[in-house]
Records
---
Amino acid sequence: MRFLPYLLAGLAFGFVMIKSEAASWYRIMEMFYFQSFHMYGIMMSAIATGLVGVLLLKRYGQLLTLDGQSISIPNKEPGRVNYILGGFIFGLGWGVIGLCPGPIFALVGMGSIGALAALGGALVGTWLYGFVKKRLPH
Amino acid sequence: MDTLLAWLHAPWPWYVSGPLIGLMVPLMLWIGNRSFGISSNLRHMCAMAQPKSIGVDFFQYDWREHNWSLVFAIGAVLGGFFAGIVFANPEPINLSVAALTMFSHWDVPIAGGFLPPVLFDLNWLSVIVMFVGGILVGFGTRYASGCTSGHAITGLSTLQLQSLLAVLGIFAGGLTAAHLVTPHLFSIFW
């Protein structure tokens, strides 16, 4: 029961990934070729909504979580190179397969063999990172 | 009822789906003080699978503490099933004319609207391209400690500089691959 809210939130997220067509290879290519406002509209309105939502949560900071904790927003770890270079490497993959991790999970649910292969690759890539992490600039 | 059903089947415009995605950030904070993001599940899945004898430090932690996140990912898979299969969009994807023209130059059919058939279905090309691209996605997201959801959505909406760096890197990498690799890749394979 404790996990039900996460299951429902994940379900909503996967649903929106498909309905927004953010999980569409075609939409991602259209975005990288600046041929439509669609994906930019999604990103900008998502960030704006998140920003306002978080401000409201902070403003009414006495509000507790569903399970009674107080809300805090962790800062990202310090670093420069890892964010830029890691992002770039991720982008190189995204610009070909047109799927980032959220859509990979959603398309697996649609029975896409290609997305399943991408998930397998992403797991191997994650493991490779863990293996060479200490030798990389961060 | 019919309008609700029609709405569930239709794709949603950016001004509906964007805010819904953005709501994930305060929603996850409210549910259990969690940061919205999905790619850390790839790490948890590696931690789950790693035998004790291998012992890469990065995967030596108690993944059970992140059960909630794995449940979220399972939810995303179910959401994909409902949105893409149960409430599938009966219409072809409504791309811009410029994009349609480009895809016809690339000889990529618009079937299904998510992945071109050659990448979606079971064939050797799909598996190789998607697997290799997946390696870059998995490696890069962990190196950058997050993907589009954790950085572009959560990170930017909580005004974190590191996320801005990550998003700039992501976009630069995506532009590079989409312009220099993808069109040629398809012309080689088709």
Note: The radius of gyration of chain A is 18 Å.
---
Amino acid sequence: MFGQIKFAAKRALGLDLAGRHYAVYPDDTFLVSYPKSGNTWVRFLLANLIHPNETVSFANINRLLPAPGVITRRFLKSVPRPRILKSHEPFDARFRRVIYLVRDPRDVALSEYHFDLKKRYVVADMTLDQFIEPFLAGETSSYGSWWEHVASWVGARHGNPNFLLARYEDLLADPIAETAKIAGFLGIEADAERLKSAVARSSADKMRKLEKQDADKWTGTKNTRQEIPFVRSAKSGGWKDNLPRQAVQQIELAWSPLMNFLGYELESPELDPKAMPVWVKAERTT
Amino acid sequence: MSGVVKHLVAGYKRAVGLNRPGKSLVILPDDVFLVSFPKSGNTWTRFLVANLRFPGEPATFANINRLIPDPTATPRREFDRMPRPRIIKSHECFDPRYPRVINVVRDPRDVVVSQYHYHRKIKKIADDSPIEKFVTRFLAGETCPHGSWGQNVATWLYTSEGNPRYLLLRYEDLIADAPRELAKVASFLNLPTSPELLAQAVERSSADRMRKLEKEQDHGLYRNSRKDMSFVRAAGSGGWRKDLPLEQAARLEAAWGSLMKHLGYELAT
């Protein structure tokens, strides 16, 4: 009962979390990804690009590039338009303009495993092998499986001029060029100097330092196991050395058409590297 | 002041469970969702499934919101009282929280005609509003809050096809052989069934019976709509060939041809 009153009071004052129930405007742009796909890094890149004179940190990122899931309704109302918002939601028809960030699911599995240990979402002695089955079934995340998430967005919006597909791996390989693409999509005029500075201020080293400084101030790291870092390897291809072979095969067997489509090379020789998701196949025969 | 009163009323309704849960519905692990884009035969399928699941209580427009509840129309306390597993109506795009899904799809060329007439009935558009204009908005997903037809269908099909917890039904197949398609639903839901039970459910959900019920019953959803146009309209498939100009059909096919072909809808252009 007390909880209900507290919630009602928070709601009346606009201090409840916006969550999924908030007004979306047609000029909003959403930075969307499945969890553990480089979303926080790109948030820092964009915040640094948009606010060249502010020191972007884990303490203010929820304000500079808000995530409706963790900020209050009142604060969300005060954000000036056009807004850029962060989200992990699977397809939402209200999101008109979307930057969709995608990452190799073999690296996502590895990253999510460490994150879930940090957050105590899974038991501390869970092995990677044990993690893969629930990961594939979408049981380790409230946003569905990696396949469901990517297919819902890419299947519904691929080719739409208001949909920008960005690969985490491409951002790592050439952060300046890829950030420039995103800036162009957002209509931000950024010269080489500004892009370079945004990338430098969002480097993995910089973010590791910032994490140490503010781990207790950010929703993503507060009350988690501090001996496991949030900013981990910040690399691509970590699965090659750290994901058990069997797990790699399980992921590829389940999701190879979508991995092919996104250009993630398969390791399993028996899988067809040309197999594509349904929507691509159908387009080709039209 | 009226704002405060509204808040108080809403708070009272919430406290006693009279509010409509909408997207805040607490989903249970054995829930089944009956999902479709609007105007794709959802109400008919609701009647069919309700009549199969509750043979002791024939479905009507007066009880359907209780038998197969709709989170946007049914009070929360009905959801708490229902026998489980619950079967719940939805028009939403892909939602990973839905544990099991029956997805009804219909040829978008028929959907657009149906929605056009429906919007005239509920006075959302003028009676003489041209269909070309409606097709433009339909393509852009502006005629309802559930995405465009292509987006709504794609999010379900591309994420869930092949998943044993997902059953895809085509409205056209239901029209062609309702008992056969309903048998698929029975097996998906593990419901006891027999040819007699299936025939009874189909009979109780016939277009004629539904038209009769619609006339007799003052059901809230359509209360302020035009009485000279019925909610249960053609109840057939392929009507677009007569009612939709070919150039408008061509626009839909240009946008969603691949998806339509994947679903087995032959393209005309």
Note: The CA atoms of residues 37 and 103 of chain A lie 5 Å apart.
